[in-house]
Sequence to fold (196 residues):
Amino acid sequence: MLTANRLSFRYGARAPYVLRDVALSIHPGEIVGLSGPSGRGKSTLGRLLAGHLEPTSGTITIDDRAGSNGQFHPVQYLHQSPIFATDPRWRISRIIAEGWSPDEVTRTELGIDDSWYARYPHEVSGGELQRVALLRALAPGLRYLIADEITSMLDPVAQVEIWQFLLKRVRQGLGILAISHDRALLERIATRVVTI
Ligand SMILES: Nc1ncnc2c1ncn2[C@@H]1O[C@H](COP(=O)(O)OP(=O)(O)OP(=O)(O)O)[C@@H](O)[C@H]1O
Fold:
């Protein structure tokens, strides 16, 4: 179980607290929806859970232990705009290889086209790059995925395809925190919805 316990965070010693004493847990094999007004700290919470930010106070544990062993982080954060999470000087092949060497089945299931491999991030569409970012995150060590509005810029067909793919992974034990303003989406996919 991924657990945030009395988590507080501020972006600087004099900055106001963005999160105060937040408690949240995500079990393997469940999707927890996270909603709340703009600026309430949803993305900040997601980035804390994935180890991109250090809590000001409080703890994040996986099965009661500190999260990462210093290699591939078992909690991966995916942003709405994957272009910010990719090095523009790297080809798609190198971006994916940073995470792992994906098998043919996973590549096919995600609709990854071999012709994208030689291109740079700006040479594929936003939806294609989101699939690439998702493929990179799916390395064998992945246990929890923070999906921050990951399908909000995609067309309805691509949205359904990506969530159907992820629901299958959830049935195999992946835990997901789905951050979204789209209540209808969260009610369709999430086991429960938490509001901050
Ligand atoms: N790097 C940063 N430095 C300083 N303040 C920041 C930084 N990133 C975010 N904030 C502030 O922290 C607060 C929470 O931002 P965050 O992006 O976590 O909210 P959110 O709930 O995800 O919002 P939205 O629904 O609009 O995406 C906001 O007031 C934002 O301005």
User: Anything to note?
Assistant: The two ends are 20 Å apart (CA to CA). Residues 2-191 form a domain with the Rossmann fold fold (CATH 3.40.50.300).
